[in-house]
Every structure is written in C-alpha cells, then in structure tokens.
Amino acid sequence: MCGIVGYLGDQQAAGILVEGLSQLEYRGYDSAGIAVLSPSGVKVVRTVGRVRDLQAALPKRLGGKVGIGHTRWATHGPATEPNAHPQASQDGRIQVVHNGILDNAAALRESLTTAGVTLSSDTDTEVLAHLIARSPAKTLEDKVIEALSHVTGTYAIAVLSADHPDRVVVARNGSPLVLGIGEREMFIGSDVAALVRHTSQVVHLDDGEFATVTRDGFKTFTADSIETGKTPEQIEMTAEELQLAGHSHYMYKEILEQPSSVERMLRGRLDERFATARLDGLQLDPRELRGIRRVKVLGCGSAFYSGQLGAALIEQLARVPADAEAASEFRYRNPIIEPDTLYVAVSQSGETADTLFAVREIQRKGGRVVGLVNVVGSSIARQCDGGIYLHAGPEISVASTKALTHMSLGFALLALALGRVRDLSFTDGLRIINGLKRIPDQISEIIDSEPHITTVAKGLAGAESLFFVGRVHGFPVAREGAQKFKEISYRHAEAYQTSELKHGPLALISETLPTVAVIPDDELLQRNIGAAHEITARRGPLVVITHAGVDLGNLDAERIDVPKNEPELDPILLTIPTQLLAYHAALELGHDIDRPRNLAKSVTVE
Ligand code: F6R
User: Is the bond preceding 339 in cis, omega lying within 30 degrees of 0?
Assistant: First the structure.
C-alpha cells in the first residue's frame, strides 16, 4: 500500500526521493508525489500513475537537499492529482505525507470548513496539514504533537515545513516508519526497501513515537516530549536482492529462488541428534511447549491458507488440536482467549493491519502469540512474544509464492518441535527431518517440469471461470491455487472440497469450466479419482496435480506430477505447480504480473 520516503543531506533530494519511491512500487499505489525545500520555497510535483510518470513530470532543475515523497493507494477519494500526497496547508508551507487512515477525518473536515478553511482534496491527510499549520504551538514538533492529539486512526507521517528548513518531523501509530542513518545524511522510509541502497543502519519507530530528523541525525520522543533513546539496528537485506536479476518478473524470480531460499531457511534449524527443530526465537522451553493444549493460527489471504496447511501439520505431528482463522474476522467476534493456547500470527510483510490487530487483541486478553514472519523488524514481528523468522528474503511480487512455502516450512518446524515434546517418536522425527532436507531438490524437480506446466496453464488461461478442488490436506493447496490464479489472471477461480462437488457445484461443470484437482497419493486416492470421473463425465476439462507413479486409470485429464515426500509434507510440494500455473496463465493473458490491479503487497489498513 502507500509508501513514504524522505531525505535530508548534501545530495539533491528529488532524485533520491524518486529512486526510493521506485523501490516501494511493489507495495501497490495509484499516484505519487514529492515535495522538496528548494532555495526559492517548497516545490511540489504530483502525478497519477507510476513513479516513472512522476519522474517525467519533474522540472529539469529541482534543487533542494531536504524533501519528502509518497506513493498513494487511494482510500479517501479517487486517484487524482489533488488527492495525491504530499498534502498541504492553505499557504503550502506545511507539507505532509501519510500512510494509514484517520477515522475521524470527516468530523475534522467539517470543523475546519466551519472555521473558514477551504479544503482542496478528498483526503484525510489534508486535514492533518491544516491542523498542523493552525496549531498554536511554537515548534514544529509541538505543532505535530498537538495536531495528532485531535485525530484517531492509524498513521505514519512525515512533515516538512518551509519555516523549519533543517528538519522533517515524523510520527508513527499503527503504520511502519524507519529512519536510515547515513554519513551526514538521513533517510526516511515506510519500508527498509526505500533505504537499503544508501545505508544498512536503521531505527524502527514504535507506535506513539515521534522523531525530529535533521541531516546530522535524529531525536525520538513521545507525545509528552520525553526523549526515547533508540539504538540503530543493522539490516541484512541488500540492494541486489531487490533487483530482477535478469528475470522478467519478480514473481518468476521468487518462484525460482525457492530451492535455495528453503535450504537457507532450514540450515541450522534441524536437530538430528534429538530429531527435533531448533527454534530459539520462539522463546518457549520444552516445559512450556509441552503445556500447550491448542494452537490457533491467524493470517490473511494466502497466509491464512498456509495457516490451514500448518494447522493440519501440527495436528498430524504433535496431535495438538489446531486450526486457522482469517485474522481479519477474529477480533470482531469477541474471541475467547485461552491461557494454554499458543496463538500463531503468520505474515510475509509483518505489516498486515488485520493480523497485527488480532495479535494485539490476543495480548490484551493475556494470550501468548508467536509470529511466523518474513520481514525482520516488522510490526508483527516486534509485537509478538517470540517467533520464527521465515528468511525467504525480500518478496517483491504482490502475489506471494516463496514466502508461503517458507510459512509452510515454518509450521513443519513448529509441528516437529511440538511433536517431539509429546508422542512423536525419534524415528518419526527423523523421518520428517529427512523429508524436509529433500524439499529443495524436489522443488527444483517441479520447476524443471515448467515447459509442461506452461502448456497446461495456457490451456486454462482461456476459461472465464475454473474450480480448484482438493480434499482434507489437499484443500488448503486448492484454496491457495485458486487464490494465486485469480489474483493475477483476473479469472474467477474458486476452491472447493472435492467431496462437496456433488452437493452443489457439480451443476456448473461443463466443457467451458475447467477444474484443477489436487490428487495426492494418499488414502483418499481412489475416492478422489472417482470424483474426478464425475467431472470428466460432464465434459469438464480436468488438470490433475498428483504424485509421480500414481495410476489414474482411464481418467481423461492433463496431469502434473510432483515428487513424493512424507505424507505430512506433501501439501507443501503440491502447492508449487499452482504458482507456475498462475504465473504462466497471467503471462499468456498479458497481465501486469507483479502489480495486479486493485491489490497491494502490504495491506496496512483494515
Ligand atoms: C496472496 C497475497 C495476499 C497476502 C495477504 C497477507 O498472494 O499476497 O493474500 O497473503 O494479504 O499478507 P501478509 O502475508 O503480508 O500478511
């Protein structure tokens, strides 16, 4: 979603701001803008469309060594130039960029209008610019504190003032904000991706925290103006990891990265001596692990489906009741929080507002939450009481692939650790460890069958609508397959339990509605094949994702074979072909694969 950048130093700000914004493009946006403090006053350039449109619109000479920038994902008001950020006070001397949503913006707009202020956009952010400009406080810092005391909602903001040309004041509440520390220069970003080309020293702001940023450094403080000492952290991400490295799409690059990223993730975490997983970050000793009576997984979208896959793994290996729930629904049903339940928040970005709020709701009621999170230092990672970092590396494509595989593996490790303090035998623990060690090569094997998967995908791309079906452990695979397909092909793709087909959806089967069926080599094989015949008997085109060596008899279907692993781990591998199916179908349809319409990489609003 929206992105923030800022710069203060000796270089020309405009170029650095635009470059930072382009690093944030993956988050999703529909307009962009910058404000630079030039010697002749504040200069603002905003455009609807891409960052490259903004770059093209910049005047030849836009001098100024302090500036802020923004990519906006429309919430209050459509994507238009007046609604793009920065938003300004009436005299233009205060410029604000903002991520998040101000809940009471409508009421504040009304009182500003009554007070004679003419608002020139539909945004909630503009309200903030006027409130800061009209604040009776003396310093810019106090004006920002005072203005924010009138608003409710979530925000990360950066404020530029023509009257205080040496500084940018920033604040955070519910939306991430990071400061990057350079040599006599400072950077501001809503995401470390915006800073990583310039520095590896960062400071994450906490909720309720403010900072004054100058070219020489920063000072953080609370709303009561009490200083909060912060120690800079070293980030591991490198600028190279954010490049396409010769690939045409990030999604494709990220699919191909999986064999090596998975190997890296597992390294050091498999304990063959005790046939368990080494998960120090969980901060749970064996006695605490043993005391867990139930596991509840919370995530959104694909992370939720991966949570369903993970809950099944936990039940199988640890025999602890486990289920997954959409984090976006959780806190609105006044959930019962149990002391001996382990809550697991799963998220690639670590910034998904729905998941973050679910974590806070659990903690508010005294529950313990651990995170399965990819982005180090993200809000969810920091909020949780412990966790397992996914170490998938940066994921830029909006459609998540490698991070989901890493989530599933994170659940496998957690299930192993929970199982080994219960009844999972040493032999079975070792069987799972050996299965996990085979996964990188088996993913490579699936990727090697890409030419065949491409042909199948092209066949599916023409359908307006399609089903993805699976049973029990194959159902989360089908859900994720349908999700990925619809996200980037814009085709209607719906997931069903194979067993439910005859209870309704079978009525839709015809030669124009293909089905992708997940049919693993397991105890339901013959039943799954039977259901598949019911589809082909009604002339439904069929693609079967199955295990090499499975005899499908005379079933009239295209098949995609996946190597067999241990039954508990098979769903992880069965998901991989669905990534390539979605990718190649979208490619065939000529869609913007890395930036699907209407979607954002990091959904930081509810
Ligand atoms: C699917 C997808 C979304 C995310 C969801 C959660 O490809 O990208 O459904 O999985 O928005 O995002 P994170 O994992 O960042 O919490």
Answer: no
